[in-house]
Each structure stands twice: as structure tokens, then as C-alpha cells.
Amino acid sequence: MVSFNYENPLDNDQRSQVQIGGINYDEVGGGADGLNYYNNLAIGKWGLLMDDFLYNDIDVTGDHAAKLALIDSGNNSIQIPNTMFKNLKNEMMKTEPTIYETEVEGNTILVARRACHELEDKLSDIEFML
Predict the structure, then answer these.
(1) Domain range holding 115?
(2) SS3 label, residue 62
(3) Ramachandran angles phi, psi of 23, nearest 5°
């Protein structure tokens, strides 16, 4: 078992935690009763069923049903079907027109012609349901 607790990096009174082999119930709202349990659906990786992929409260899923989301704590990319990628790009470009697609090592990624600190208050959160 691996448990993750991600805190706001701007809050110096809190620390993010990764715990192997247990759960720190003091960090869970509602203690043990506040936990959500999910089955690992992937083989050889961690995977959860993901649905309702949202950007700025807009569903960019298109006609796609729930998909397997692979979890890799050492990677900050999100790999999604092409239709969802295009929908996400179109929604992001409504508030940041410098966003464009480029290819890196055979993968198509989104890039903006601005520094990250300029984008953090401009772009919305990406959300999904499990």
C-alpha cells in the first residue's frame, strides 16, 4: 500500500507526504472513514478508471467512455485520447492563445509561449472523476 498526501506548496506549515505500507489517518479528513479505496486495474502498473475529464468545469471527454488512467508519481504528463487532447487544447486557448502543439520524442505536447508563473493564475485546473 502506498498513500499520498499532496499539500499546497505555498503553505509552509504543511508538508506533502508519501507513506509506504500504511496511512497517516491524521492527514485524512474524517480519519479512516474519510478514505476512498480504488482497485488497481492495470497489470504491472498502477491504474484507475477515469471519467469526466474537465477543464474549467467543461467536460472535454467528448464521446469517450471511462478510460484506464495510469498513475506514475515520477511523471507529470497526462496521456489522453486525441479527441480529448484537441478539446482540452481548444478550451485552454480561449484564455491563453499562445498555446500550440509540438512533438517531443514522438509525443505531441502542449506548449505556451509564456513562463509557468505567468500561466498559473490564467489557466484553470484539470479535473477528473474516478
Answers:
(1) 39-129
(2) coil
(3) -135, 135
Provide the sign of the torsion angle of the four alpha carbons 16, 20, 26, 29, taken in this order: positive
**10-residue stretch averages of pLDDT, the chain, 130 residues long:** 71 76 82 84 82 87 80 72 90 94 90 89 85
So what's the pLDDT on residue 95? 94
Q: Which residues of 105-120 are buried (b: 16+ CB within 10 A; e: fewer)?
A: eeeeeeebeeeeeeee
Nearest to 89 by CA among 33, 16, 81: 81
| Res 1: pLDDT | 63
Angle among Cα 43, 48, 54 to the nearest 5 degrees reads: 145
Same-domain pairing of 88 and 100: yes
Examine the domain organization and report whether 123 and 69 are in the same domain.
yes
**Residue 71 CA to chain centroid, in angstroms?**
9
Q: What is the pLDDT of residue 103?
A: 93
Q: Does pTM surpass 0.70? A: no
